[in-house]
Amino acid sequence: MPVGAAARTAWSVPAALGVIAGILLALGVTLGFGGNGALSLAGLAALLGALAWRDPRRALLLGLAVAGVGAGFLSARTVLARPDPMTPWLGAQVTLRGEWDGQFLTLQEPRARVAVAPKPTQGAGQLTVSGRLVAPEGRRTPGGFDQAAWLRAQGGLLLPTPGAVLVAARVQAHTPGRGLRGWFRRGLSAGLDDRRAALMQAIELGDRGDISREEFAEGYAVRDAFSRAGLAHLMALSGQNVALITGVLLWLLIRAGAPPAWRYGLPAALLLPYLLLLVQPSPSITRAVIMGGVALVALAVGRGRPDPLGLIALAALLCLLLFPLWLLDLGFVLSFLAVLALTGSARLAGRLPARWPYALRLAVAATVLAELGTLPVIAGTFGQVPLVGLPANLVAGVIMAALVPLGFLAGLLGPLAAPLNLINGPLASALLLVAQTFGQAPVLTWGVIGPAGFVAFVTAAGAGWLWLLGRVPGRAVMGTVLAGTLLTALPGWVRPAQDIVFLDVGQGDCTLLRLPGLTVLIDAGGSVGSDYDVGGRTVVPALRALGVRKLDVVIATHADTDHIEGVSGVLRGMPVGEVWIGQRKTDDPVLTAVLNEAQVRGVPVREVRRGDHVQAGRAALTVLWPPGNAWSTEDNDNSVAVRLDVGDWHAAFLGDLPAHAEAALNLGRLNLLKVAHHGSRYSTGEALLAQARPADAVISVGRNTYGHPHPDVLGRLAAANTRAWRTDQSGTITWPLP
């Protein structure tokens, strides 16, 4: 072998790096990501230089990289510049008819795809639905869902990008799908109850609409259990599905004595119909189909074992040329990080105890590497890391090895699959039991990971890879990990956060106070007339993203849904020291749910009155209302109002108090006022503003039909020279404390 042969780099690697650089360049120019784009481009250039340094074909590799930059830039700009045909109807009430696939409504004229909210419960098929078209929203809370970015990543050169959302959607008519996909769905559910049928559709088709509505118990959703157990990837079509299904087909062809061309060529030929006719081209499954197809074709034509890194790069190259904005898709990023990490499975298995069966060593190695490879993205995005991922995935992996191919066969059989589902049913039940059991284990909470955290992770990962190669001892890896942990954790220990965070929970209230030694949440929002769990789905992820691991106090100001409904979800999702309430109503279902949840969690409930306070260093939180000697028949009149004093800096949070109660508070001078009742005309009166003279006021408000904030309130604030800040305009507002 020539001396330079070992240093050769697959041509697809520089080409893929170039495409990524081109897409980043297009995003930086178009979306204003200049700083991050420049940093990423510099990192890619350094990586390319390292790969090509010892390769005798430097000029060729650099040429491929340059060509990739041009191709990636052109592809991304083409997708970004394409107008959305639904734009002229934004803000209008419309009725749309199209093909519903469980995720998007695809229209024929104009050719477009539309997201629907709330998502219809009907299965795939022809759907007629009415509602109002609106533009998608970006991320409005820390750790929240960036709907606009996600929708941008769902389109490509050959697939329209969803650019509008149909809200307040009402289904007018639905015709179930009659094609292959409809037949397949009937096979997955034949003879099974709703929960197991929903699980089968999630595993085999990636359709998580039905399973998202399933609960093991009140407040304990099936999807949450899978996530907490580290099994969420099982419900996203990926390489595991392709590997298991093609693996069974390969085994059958080998047993039948098929020659290599048929043995590998037939599964490769079936992958494209599988992608286009049965499942949707999501980033993970498309990557898996492309990668699996390339590997099978290479084996069919007798080219030997493909280079893993070159194969991964080729899959990325093809995916990103067709779907350039998949580079922003979380699932796509996680897929490639996991696959890159899995390339070290054999090396790690070789370092595990030799007395273990090799299959077990390989399974343990693959699971550990996949979890470590995706750790920073999982932790930073979801705010938590499962602690039982390894055993849960080992047990679930055995079940999936049988369930995926048998479920696929059941789908092919359609309504005739009931006898086969006598086997699939218990397997699905076993998988649900694994998720339910391991999902009750504690998780490690995490905040947003900054640049320093990613640098520390990459350094530790590099040290781990050198250990796998036998270049450094294990103690060097442990030292690198400990050093990175200390250096990234030290700033938070030395200077903990001191601020007020007004979370954007739509038409509701939710305020976080972060003080040294005291963390307080005032209300947690709510969704009137909806079953959306604002506390569990919006507030808890935001708290985790902010690095909040426990709450000392949760204040439920009064028995209004838009203020305290989310408190139950917060109690379920995070340790809480105590709950403060004002009036203990016994006939209000929302407050009763909060009190019951507190009792179940063992959280004490304290009925506070004017003068109650808590001290934390130089900060004091004092209850201003209610006096507690009499109660009004109006819940707003009974709101808990508190004042925060940090040295000579003062703020007040007034719940939904009306003007006549505000005037009785004797607030004194304020630096910051949290406006009562979302800017209702009956609050924030002239007397209050004349007394408090706040420099700034925050209004927590969302889309509403109440006229909040009322022009009279905005006028009174302007007349008092008070600057108004609104969550419906600014999203989550963070206010630093002195």
Automatic annotation (TrEMBL):
Membrane-traversing stretches: 12-31, 37-53, 60-80, 231-254, 261-279, 285-302, 309-326, 332-350, 362-382, 394-413, 420-438, 444-469, 476-494
Keyword Metal-binding: no
The keyword Amino-acid biosynthesis is annotated on this UniProt entry: no
Membrane topology: Multi-pass membrane protein
Keywords, comma-separated and alphabetical: Cell membrane, Membrane, Transmembrane, Transmembrane helix
Localization of this protein: Cell membrane
Limits of the Metallo-beta-lactamase domain: 507-703
Family annotation (NCBIfam families): ComEC_N-term, ComEC_Rec2
Name of the protein in its database record: DNA internalization-related competence protein ComEC/Rec2
Source species taxonomy: Bacteria, Thermotogati, Deinococcota, Deinococci, Deinococcales
